[in-house]
Amino acid sequence: MSQTYDRGMAVRREVLGEAHVARAEAAKTEFDTPFQSLITESAWGTVWASDRITRRERSMLTIALLAATGNFEEIPMHIRATARTGASMADVAEALQHVAIYAGVPRANHALKLARQTYAEMEETAQ
């Protein structure tokens, strides 16, 4: 694999956690391996590996963009990642305020619901 792929896997583990990445890697098939390589290199090895903005800021942007575009499936994963990126619940709430104004209240409302559920699950797991 390339250096970008290796850097991407390292960043992916740091942001999403070893357990998440291990589950995703174990679930890979011949069919989706090229896609997994693409996102590891492009999303994690290039975008998330950049130091131009902080991981906290990148988390907030990612959650807001997922909500704004209606890609709700990945919001819980990125909410869980905030424990490692430093984005607080207040940061996420602020980002979703922007979504409400610029992309629509229903999308922000649904994202807030997912965030609340995920934070509650994280709290339960921490106890």
UniProtKB/TrEMBL annotation:
Domain Carboxymuconolactone decarboxylase-like: 35-116
Domain of life: Bacteria
Database matches in InterPro entries: 4CMD/NDH-1_regulator, AhpD-like, CMD-like, Decarb_PcaC
Gene Ontology molecular function: any one: peroxiredoxin activity
Name of this protein: 4-carboxymuconolactone decarboxylase
